[in-house]
Model the fold of this input.
Amino acid sequence: MEIPGEHEARERSWAVVQAAFAEREPQPRRRSWKPVAALALVLAGAAGLLSPSGRAVLDEIREVVGVERSAPALFSLPASGRLLVTGDSGAWVVEEDGSRRLLGPYADATWSPFGRYVAATRKDELAALEPDGDVRWSLPRPGARSPRWTGSATDTRIAFVTDSRLHVVGGDGTRDVDAGGGPAPAADIAPAWRPRRRFELSYLDSLHRVATFGVETSGTSWRSIAIPDAQQLTWAPDGTRLLVVGRNRLVSLRGADGTATVRRERGVTAASWAPDGRLAIVRTVRGRSEVLVDGRVRFSTAGAIDRPVWSPDGRWLVVALPQADQWVFVRASAKTGLRAVANVSSQFRSRSFPVIAGWCCLSE
Amino acid sequence: MGAGRDERAEVRAAQRGSASGIEALFRLHWPRAYRAAFLVVHDAAAAEDIAQEAFLAAVRNLDRFDRGRPFGPWLHRIVVNRAIDWTRSRQLRAEAELVDVEAPEESGPLDASLLGALAALPPEHRAVIVLRHLLDYTPGEIAELLGLPRGTVNSRLRRGLDSLKESV
Done:
């Protein structure tokens, strides 16, 4: 008895099992104090942020994990464009000269394709905003989150997630539809639009498989193998492959049919494509984090680094160092040329560390 | 006997970190694991996930695996239990996921009417029939694998086969 597609299924599974086996650490394991030391550092950071006297502790940690020479505030961006930032106080736009504007109490946000608008969510609402904060339209949708906006200058779509459904709505706020037709989306992984295709969307479903489908056409283009450790989906800018960041691995899914290729990448936590196709990844090994661009280390520090964000011209990356309360602008093509900014949380009136949601766009 | 010794050698090799050891175990056991899962869940993608997850569980627990015991039954137990769980949860969500059900292709060696009849059985009955007639376990072994009384296994087998006879 052979089931149709069995051979392909076997080889897909073998790739996953082989990768898992390669990551396995055979017994007996030797005791190491390094993870304990790293944990102590993290706990120290958390304690510092939570206790009344945290500032002094934070300063001590910053000396260990941060960039020593940092500007006390964000005075300007090193490249053109505007940053979109979210924190406890809401969504903010940061202009090139460093000036900041609070758009409103939104938890998650994304730029429109040309940076003319922002789609933002808060409890039970999706809204489209002008960069000055004026609301163009809003939709009441329980549990709305993870908006992602795509399209041309004349026709756009916004994908977003609610508790049980993947939605796609027109850029004018009309024609909100349940999309995908399959299992519900995974709770915390944002969907990803495929570049250079007309409204083709990928999302991780609750069975840990990536489904890709055309929003304007019926049916699913492909569904991947299960990737139980998926943490992030990101399409290459030419639309030829979708990268899934897993635990200690990167899974590359071929754009045409979802065929998976697994690459072991110890400690990887995030990835981001430059507009020209270079890949930046963040990895943390033995308590030390690194940013690599096409395999070359561009920045490293003790402590954690958040997901990197590219400048629109692809010359800079901005990375966040929550434990040091810093942002660091890293030149993508050289190991020198860091610009660090301190006191980030207070600049955005946020108790938790602000998230950089996007850097957009080159002047038209 | 020889096959059992070979399998134990492959388990030992895999425990020592040998990639060829784990590949041999995978190549030997994956087809039956996948087919068993498919016959219980009737969804190729879900069967692939279930067989894959069973092997990932095997990799995670390799160091704790008792080399004195055969690998196949241990794996099949994981597969069949997960397949039953999956089918139960699918039945609860049938309306939401109807689009996702994949029917087997008409051509090929699978008997469509038999598959259809099998799909109509409760998942617990499907599982014992698959274990008995695809994987060739004895009722006693099935009872041990699924943690059921032997009489329950026998009655599920009998009732399942009766239903299949009526349908086909």
In short: The radius of gyration of chain A is 21 Å. Chain A is about 15% helix and 40% strand. Residues 213 and 221 of chain A are 5 Å apart (CA to CA).
